[in-house]
Structures are given as structure tokens and as C-alpha cells.
Amino acid sequence: MFNKDTYIQRRKALKKTVNNGILLFMGNNEAPMNYPSNTYHYRQDSHFIYFFGIHLDHLAAVIDLDEDKEIIFGDNYTIDDIIWMGNQPTIEALADKCGVANTLPSAQLIEYLHKAQKAGRKIHYLPPYRDDNKIFLHNTLSIPFEQLKASASVEFIKGVVSLREIKEEEELKEMEKACNLGVAMHTAAMEYCKAGKLERELAGMIEGIALAGGNGVSFPVILSQNGETLHNHNHEQILENGRLLLVDAGAELKSGYSSDYTRTFPVSGKFTQKQKDIYEIVLQANMEAIDMAKPGLNYFDVHMYATTIIAKGLTKLGLMKGNPEEAARKGAHALFMPHGLGHMLGLDVHDMEDLGENYVGYNEHIQRSPIFGHGSLRCAKKLQKGFILTVEPGIYFIPQLIDIWEKENKFSEYINYDKVKTYIGFGGIRIEDDIVITETGCRVIGTPLPKKVADIEALMAE
After folding, report:
1. Which CATH number goes with the domain that contains 355?
2. What is the DSSP string of 112-180?
3. For residues 101 and 303, what is the distance between their CA atoms, to the nearest angstrom?
4. Which H helix or E strand runs over 390?
5. Of 101, 160, 229, 257, whose CA is between 20 and 30 Å from 312?
6. What is the DSSP letter of 383?
7. Which pLDDT does position 285 carry in this prediction?
8. Coil/strand/helix, residue 26
9. Does 125 lie in the same domain as 203?
10. Residues 153 and 174 occupy one common structural domain
11. What is the pLDDT of residue 82?
12. CA–CA dist 282, 349 (Å, integer)
């Protein structure tokens, strides 16, 4: 936990964003894998972490705006629990650490909310994503399941986003640690990559590094020679010389803060000329997008710049043709890069995505593009000092997408399908770094992770 004043000030700022009523925070409960007492690794709700800092299951909290009161609802462990778990802090002690003066047993939350409802008071809640919390809200507030997301408080959502999107200095320090742990994961993957090994050997090794240094991985490891599958969690292939290995992985600290990196490198330790040609285009897009990002600039413009670099590079190689700026603007580049340039990063690897991308990455000033590829951009809005985002351009040769587009004769004025088909089996390349927006530009967070061809080959040669 941070100092209690941090949580007090965060809640104080949040109160100014909503006019009246009750702000309800639902903590996460344990989730069983196959029977109740055998649970998945516990992860607290990120909003609960941000405003209260307590990593414990079966908790809820309210900020009562009308009565100017904050309450944490939870139950102290009994001796039956302590026998198995050891001595545990009381709810009162945990509440004191985050500056909350009032605590009540869990059972009184329903009564508290019903009383507020009968008085005609507004109960604000955030979009639920855990089924047990959905059931609680449905039963307690009498909201139909299909209306739970739509009935979430827009005021509350916007208030949370306005605070969490700007990272405080102590948050940035945690992010530096998370990024350094992510660098260690990816460096190890490059160092131990060798033909004949199973992909899961490397995936398990880097997940172990994340567990040894923090709270484990920030999302399931993506590690595959079939890098054209954007989120490939299958790790059953044998590593082969001549193929590229795409590794997208990050670490999460005990505090909940996360990192997210992607590197693509040759299994043999040496890029072929064909691989290098594509890699250098992605690297240019990555590095120039980082150089471009600064306060006051819409991230959509950075995304567009990166996709134009992709189109220009592929045009030089003969995979695309015509005017590359026009091709990127119309979305022809999306055959090769169907995703956006990046997303917010913080307590969540896709920060605050549970609140809805259109609240986190868009606003009344910039709306989501209807164009395939551009519409996948998770954050398009104006950059501000304190934003932490990923920069992750890529080029992929997806056989199914190539086949569909060619049959539809889609963007045939910009795409040389005959040459594109010769790249089927190439895989995919993505290069991803984490940046923080500063006063005048941005900087990459964490210890630099090799990404230039010569640096990767040198590291792997060791």
C-alpha cells in the first residue's frame, strides 16, 4: 500500500466528480478452479486497489456523498481461518491504513443499500465483470442482468477515468519496477531461445521470473512462432531455426501495477534478409511513434503516422503499391496491421478496460473510427502528461485474412496479392514498449530492452 494520505486524497478528488448519492465499490472474491477451496491466484479489483489499497477478498466499500461518510464492509477472519492461513489483520486495521474510519460486517451492506434505495437515493456502481458481483447487484438493486452494464453510472465511470489516467509519481515508480521485471522476462527469453526447445519451456521460464519478482504475469503469456495470430496462447511447438518467435508478455507487481512488452526475434539468433526487411519497417514505426508522442497530440494521429510508415515500407518491398499515405488513411494497411498502435497501461494491462474503451480512450472530442484496423485503436484521445501507454506496431501475414481480402478484390489498387501470398508462413512481427507522457514529449519506462537488429543478435549470440 501507499501512504494513507494517497488514498484519502484520491477519494477526496473522486467525490468532486459525482454530485450526490452513494459510490459503491465491489471488491473481487476468490474464484474456484474446480472446487470451492481450490482457487485461482487472487487478484483484487483495480478500482478497489486504487481508492483503498487493500488486496483482500470479500470486501466492499461505499463513499456516501450525501452523509460525507466512507465505509468498508468486510468480516474478520475466525480461528478456523487462522488455523490454515496464520494470523491476519483485522478489517479495522486495514481500513485505518487507507484512512477509512468506518467499518461494518459484510451482511450489513445489503441493508445499507436497501435503506438508501427506499429513500430515493442514487446508488452509483461501475460496470461489473465478475459473475458473483453481477448476481449481488441483480439481487440487491433489482436490476435485470441484461441491464447491469447499461445501468452503471456514467458520472462514476468518468470520474474514475479522470483520476486513474494521470499517473502519480509513486505510481510511476511502481511502473518502473514492473517494466524492469518485464525486461528481465524478455531478456531471458532471448538468451535461452534455442532450436529444439518447446515454446512452453520459454513461456514457463518467463512466467516464473514474473512470479519470483512480483505477482506473476500481467496477462497470459503470448509466445509463438505463429506470430500472425495476434493473441496466440498456444505454446506446444518445437522451436525451429529459420522461424521468428514473437513474445508478448508483462509482469504485475504485488501492488497491482503492470508492464507489457513485445519482442520478435529469430530462433537461430540471426535474422534472414527477408525477416530483417519486415522487422526494420516495424522498428521504424515503433521508434518514430515514440519520438512523436507528446502532450496535446491525439494518439490517433500517432497511430496514423505509424500505419503510414508501415504502408510506405511495404510499398518499397513491393507488397503494397500506390500512394502509401492514401492507402493507410483508407485502411489498406490493416491487412498487415489490423490492430491499433497501443492502449493505456497501469493497474490493468489494458488500463480501465472494464469501464469501456470508449470512456478510457475516447471522449466527446474524438470518436472511434469506423474503418477496420483504425477502429481497433484502444486509445485515440489527446495525450496528457502522466499518461502511460503502449506503442506496439506490427506486421502480420494472416492466411485467412489474405484469402478473404483477395477473393473480395479488396484494396487491389494498394495491395500486391501475388507477392503477399509468398509471405504466408512468415508469421508476424510486433515491437512494443511502454511510455510515459512528459512535459514536452515522452520517454520509455524501464531499463532499455534490446530491439535493434544488431542488439538482439548480439544478445542472442552470448
Report:
1. 3.90.230.10
2. HHHHHHHTT--EEEPPP-SHHHHHHHHHHH---GGGTTTTS-HHHHHHHHHHHTS--HHHHHHHHHHHH
3. 46
4. strand 388-391
5. 229
6. -
7. 98
8. strand
9. no
10. no
11. 85
12. 22
Distance CA 59, CA 27 (A): 5
* Cα gap 443→437, rounded to integer Å: 7
Kindly report the CA angle at 273 between 272 and 278, in degrees rounded to 5?
100
* Cell 513461456 belongs to residue: 203
**pLDDT tens readout for residues 242-286:** 999 999 999 999 999 999 999 999 999 999 999 999 999 999 999
**Total structural domains within the chain:** 2
For range 158-178, the mean pLDDT: 98
What pLDDT is recorded for position 454?
Answer: 98
Q: Do 125 and 181 belong to one domain?
A: no
Same domain membership, residue 415 and residue 339 = yes
| Same-domain status, 178 and 152 | no
Query: How does pLDDT run across 126-154, given as a tens digit for each residue?
Result: 999 999 999 999 999 999 999 999 999 99
Domain boundary among 111, 130, 164: 164
Are both 138 and 224 inside the same structural domain? no
Residue 434 contacts residue 345 (beta carbons within 8 Å) = yes
- Report the half-sphere exposure of 194 (CA within 13 A, side-chain side): 8
Domain's final residue, options 164, 192, 220 = 164
pLDDT at 87 over 90: no
The span from the CA of 180 to the CA of 253, in Å, is: 11
Indicate the Cα dihedral angle 137, 142, 144, 150, nearest 10°. Answer: -60
Give the list of residues 6+ apart from residue 12 with CB closer than 8 angstroms, or none: none
160 and 173 in a single domain? The answer is no
Concatenating the DSSP letter of every residue in 205-265 gives HHHHHHHHHSSSBSS--EEES-TTSTT-----SBP-TT-EEEEEE-BB-TTS-B--EEEEE
> Which domain does 291 fall in, by range?
169-461
Beta strands 394-396 and 388-391, pairing class: unpaired
Is the same domain home to 146 and 185? no
Which strands form 261-266's sheet, in the order they lie side by side?
A: 222-224, 244-249, 261-266
Q: How far apart are CA 428 and CA 395, in angstroms?
A: 6
Strand, coil or helix: what is 398? coil
CA distance 361 to 349: 14
- Give the pairing type, strands 22-26 and 123-125: parallel
